[in-house]
């Protein structure tokens, strides 16, 4: 008899695994609508939709395993990371989805509000927040909209050997900045950024990707804390924010 495994559980979503079937239960059915339509439109492998009976969406398990996990070294080969970059490029080159994403002004306002709350609640030191907010500024510029996954967390990309077998969790898919997807995929795995970019091809501004690392981490920390996750674990969001400052200081020293 297969056992019921709780993959993730918080107030907004619970995902269960029973054998080779994943059951996703979303409080917001609009997110599930987006997920199903995005998987239909995306030119990359996605999980098979077995059935949907709101609030439950049943998906078939993907072959292979996640290319990595935040806070852990990745066992995947450089070729697998390059294949992930190539898959993301196919997505970004596809026709835009019919629904919009967040605007630049919305993201900037949300980021500023989040920075204020991180300091006011004492979750992060003011200096760490302020310096990463300055780094983040490079990402907050006009972009050409692309079909973006929107939550291309490293654990959402599955590979078997050097082949991408599927991409999970499309509820945040929308029109957006292509470099945000690349930044999300490589967050906490900067050692594989070169592999991803090699597979992705041209049109990549590495400074913008690094800036999105700061944006993504600043936006995530408080939500993770409030939902029972630990962004302070080694290699996770807070370590990314600290590494951003260290990298910035090394760059400035080299420029002197």
> Architecture, CATH level 2?
Alpha-Beta Complex
Q: Could you tell me the mean pLDDT? A: 95
State the shape. globular
Low-confidence stretches: none
Tell me the name of the CATH homologous superfamily.
Answer: Aminoglycoside phosphotransferase (APH), C-terminal lobe
CATH level 1 class label: Alpha Beta
- Extended strand count: 10
Structural class: alpha+beta
Helix content: 40-55%
- Quote the distance from N terminus to C terminus: 65 Å
Biggest beta-sheet profile: 5 strands, antiparallel
Q: Count of helical segments?
A: 8
Instruction: Return the string of H and E elements.
Output: EEEHEEEHHHEEEEHHHH
Instruction: Tell me the Rg in angstroms.
Output: 18 Å
For this structure, the CATH topology is Aminoglycoside 3'-phosphotransferase, Chain: A, domain 2
Strand content: 15-25%
Topology at a glance:
Blueprint: E1 4-9, E2 13-18, E3 21-26, H1 29-41, E4 49-53, E5 56-60, E6 65-66, H2 78-92, H3 104-120, H4 126-136, E7 146-148, E8 157-160, E9 163-167, E10 174-176, H5 178-186, H6 193-200, H7 206-226, H8 237-255
Antiparallel strand pairs: 1-2, 2-3, 3-5, 4-5, 6-8, 7-10, 8-9
Helix pairs in contact: 2-6, 3-4, 3-7, 4-7, 4-8, 5-7, 7-8
